[in-house]
Amino acid sequence: MKKVVISLGGSIIIPDKVDYGYLKKFSKFIKKFSKKNKVVIVTGGGSTARKYIDGMKHINSNPDMLSIVGIASTRLNARLVSGVFDIKDEIPEKLLDVKKFLRKRNLVICGALGMQKNMTSDGNAAEVAELIKADYLINMTNVKGLYDKNPKTNKSAKFIPEISFKDFMTRINKIKFKAGQHFVLDQSAAKIISRSKIKTCIVNNDLKNLNKLLNEKKFVGTVIGDV
What we know:
single chain, alpha/beta, Carbamate kinase, 9 helices, 16% strand
């Protein structure tokens, strides 16, 4: 039995409007995989969070208030994804609750797990992976992996198929944290996966590709680990 934590980017859940077609396929895939494996899905806030955060900035730019809005957005997305999976149970809002829920069932879905400084739902996903000693932390986003530049604004951006924990930390420490930030992993997640040596994979939303990853076959994406 594998233990897998998936950080499901808000850009996949709601790229512009709810991608219910994709979410149905995703739920079918994960339901099948979770019959014999433990899975935790942590949902990001994506564009929903950024829209609310940008709106809040015009009213109240207090960082804590912006974080609260972002957290609420991730939990709204968690409830949406839970609905696609037909899960009506309570959504855990604390780290230890995730572990408790996982003892009872093979699939747990949640959003952000409380307000912590300089942390997004990616950091929470890394915390869960550390707590349950996950085999993989998988970050699903709207790009195929890590690049040396933003591939959406730089045509010359080079894809990075693998990178060491140390080099990834060096790269991400150059980025200043902000609520609702849009990067493959946040700074807190990078610290957690580095200290606990959690194999981390960054992939897009291609389910065939995800299936290859979970079955330890060659896949398209970025691996962060001991390389």
